Amino acid sequence: DGGITQSPKYLFRKEGQNVTLSCEQNLNHDAMYWYRQDPGQGLRLIYYSQIVNDFQKGDIAEGYSVSREKKESFPLTVTSAQKNPTAFYLCASSKDSVNTEAFFGQGTRLTVV
Amino acid sequence: GQQVMQIPQYQHVQEGEDFTTYCNSSTTLSNIQWYKQRPGGHPVFLIQLVKSGEVKKQKRLTFQFGEAKKNSSLHITATQTTDVGTYFCAGPSLNQAGTALIFGKGTTLSVSS
């Protein structure tokens, strides 16, 4: 059963702690993305990767880090430097970067207290 | 940087009324994609438009891509309660590092029966 999986669905962390969100896909897609969704803000691009071992900053990369060591995996770390980390985080993948449809995971709702 | 803007942000209709959302880009797009996100869910791909002036239909949904490839619209005829959700347009964004898919802020549709 092909798809893109994010875990966990809900995550709670204390302020000042780093937290890593998982994103795995078995669609053999080259491109992967992380978006942040806040009410009324749409989807804002955090980081994206078009190929293994390479990634680029999106519009709101500050306070986040990523790695792309395997084609299937694109984990996102929310660091303590992120000023307002509470949000809904969506991971997506596509066969190429922008000319084919993107498939989204179920999302991770992160709450920092 | 490049922006994709959508209007309106919110729209409430009575069941059976029509609905239209508009998407405008600050630059010419090679293609535009539309997604739907149900409440509590994740975005799901609806369609991609590539050609100037292209019109595509999916049952009660009509998608248009402008002649200049800088604007697009989604029109729903005779809305139903199943149409409730947020509709996003997305287009390629080219920056110095590569190309990624950027999203508008979305139009949230509510339908009362």
Structural commentary:
The complex is a heterodimer of chains A (113) and B (113). Chain A has 113 residues and is mainly β. Chain A has no helices and eleven strands. The termini of chain A are far apart. The mean pLDDT of chain A is 93. Chain B has strands at residues 4-7, 10-14, 19-25, 32-37, 44-49, 55-58, 61-65, 71-76, 85-95, 98-103, 107-112. The radius of gyration of chain B is 14 Å and the shape is globular. Chain B contains no helices and eleven strands. In chain B, 35% of the residues are buried. In chain B, a hairpin with a 5-residue loop joins strand 7 (61-65) and strand 8. Chain B has 113 residues and is mainly β. At the A-B interface, strand 5, strand 9 and strand 10 of A face strand 5, strand 9 and strand 10 of B.
Give structural attributes.
heterodimer, A: 113 residues, mainly beta, seven-stranded mixed β-sheet, four-stranded antiparallel β-sheet, B: mainly beta, five-stranded antiparallel β-sheet
Q: Short description, anyone?
A:
Chain A has 113 residues and is an all-beta fold. Chain A contains no helices and 11 strands.
